[in-house]
Amino acid sequence: MRKLECPICGGLMSIPDDAMSGELFEHDECGGQLELEIDEVGNYKLKQAEEVSEDWGQ
Ligand SMILES: [Zn+2]
């Protein structure tokens, strides 16, 4: 596990070591959708994922 800072609320988020670039995580503290980015030198960072509509219709 590694700890990364949430870009939305600034809190820490635990990311598994086997997480892959592009994987989506939800931060429990703020409910934000975060996308993991791993660059070519292996730095992990989180960015806010695009809002996904939760309107699935009725
Ligand atoms: Zn957060």
How many domain regions? Answer: 1
What is the CATH topology classification name?
Rubrerythrin, domain 2
Q: Strand count, sense and closure of the main sheet?
A: 3 strands, antiparallel
Low-confidence stretches: none
Percent of residues in helices: under 10%
Q: Based on DSSP secondary structure assignment, what is the total number of beta strands?
A: 5
Physical arrangement of strands within the biggest beta sheet: 3-4-5
Form type = globular
How far from one another are the termini?
Answer: 38 Å
The small molecules bound here are:
zinc ion
H/E element order: EEEEE
- Rounded mean pLDDT is 91
Radius of gyration, taken over Cα atoms and rounded to an integer in Å:
12 Å
Give me the secondary-structure category. mainly beta
Identify the CATH class: Mainly Beta
